[in-house]
């Protein structure tokens, strides 16, 4: 039987069949190239968006942490929210050191940023009073627009008042550029700040200067007492050496009644040297003069008596009225307690 079919040919073997060419035509090549480019562009776009998101997150974090520097017009920075940690700002502004800083900024520009923080009223200075003042002087002296703006690090995050004070003094304390009197003055002014929960100056010394050795904090507390007792009579507090200030403060603490005598002695001084000479003479004098001792002997002896008001025990003696009670007076609002004491005093004075 023939292997051919009715059409006259037999079955084909694989070797008899030529392979079919499947070359990509022009249209197919264009479609494939466009698809490849689209996939590559999409991948690049996704990666770019991922990188942009990471950069934005890093920038926001840096901004929140105060690591982003901005250029701010000088007139937009105010300095009336915090007291400065310098006692004589006028002298600092006219000092040789200020002229040297101005010369550096004039030649090389502002290299170190100031630090500011946001308030409802705008930017407030935290650190960099000398740099800001130098730029203000340069703008006034030259009229150059280069000095119309200041490079600043802005703190946008919420900060407590005590943290603002600590940041303000930290730079100068680390550089050992503040006198004991200036450090004491910061604590005294901070104690008057209603945003610090009416803490005392002695307590604030421990918080403001926590990084200092406890002995140095003890010296600052001595100057707090010295500056508080003598007030404006101590005209040149920065010139008082550590040992002299501490010794005078200790004598004043030991004999509170003699502060008035020292204030009178200081009333006629004109120079820092005269002031310090008087302080040294004050240390050499006895705490009580003979006439004062004689007067003390003629005074009647103090009489002490006690009584109870409810659960409170009251002890009265010369110069002292003590109330012992289970009540926690430190938990009472200071203003309320002050009103109660004022009412107590008014009754004693028959007002």
Automatic annotation (TrEMBL):
Residues 70-173 form the ParB-like N-terminal domain. GO terms for biological process: chromosome segregation. GO terms for cellular component: chromosome. Pfam families: ParB_N. Residues 1-29 are annotated as: Disordered. PANTHER family: CHROMOSOME-PARTITIONING PROTEIN PARB-RELATED (PTHR33375:SF1). This is Chromosome partitioning protein ParB. It comes from Paracoccus litorisediminis. The lineage of its organism: Bacteria, Pseudomonadati, Pseudomonadota, Alphaproteobacteria, Rhodobacterales.
